[in-house]
Amino acid sequence: MSRSTRRVIPALAASLIFTLSAPLIAQEPAPAANQTWSQEDTLRIVKEVQQKLANLTTYGVFDWLTFGIKGKTLILRGYASRPVLKSDAENAVKKIQGIDSIDNEIEVLPLSPMDDRIRAAVYNNIYTQPSLRKYNANQGSIGRAIGPGAGIALAAGGITNTPPMGYHAIHIIVKNGNVTLYGVVLNQSDSAIAGMQANSTPGTFSVDNDLIVQGSAAKPKAAK
How confident is the model at residue 217 (pLDDT cuts 50, 70, 90)? Predict the structure, then answer.
């Protein structure tokens, strides 16, 4: 991987991983002027929220966080493979100056040995692909990602308790055997390869490829 690619991927992911939920904001009544932030405060708060969430040690490849705003309320959304991430995310942002309240809608994914096996298998299928290794700081499989001595049992079950370390551009969300890929990649080919690798993983019931390609608009998602 070239130096330029190493620089582009983290910067690109940082700008897209935490996005303002446009459908959510658009459907809310316009609050009074004194109930909203100024443009300057909005930019500051968005940047601080991005930084706070990105620095969470409990946020990993099997989680996905987004946020939106309604008036002076920050709305947290996404998926957490462990309950601690939901509370950690809220605690990280609630003291940011200007935020009046937090609406924490992060969904905690069910505890499931089957889903953990799928997480490990999809991770290996995606991140061992030569064209996709550049999106993984560990440049390899689950065993390499969680450190020396990682056994097959750890990789096959309970992986949410010891998730892969380091930066990952492609996030893998698994719920009741259904897989969704979130994140950002450099081109459509990489997105297609990641989707095919997830689809070829035994045990998956369905695969939703919501990866964003650099330079393209985010895929529209219906508000919950």
Answer: low
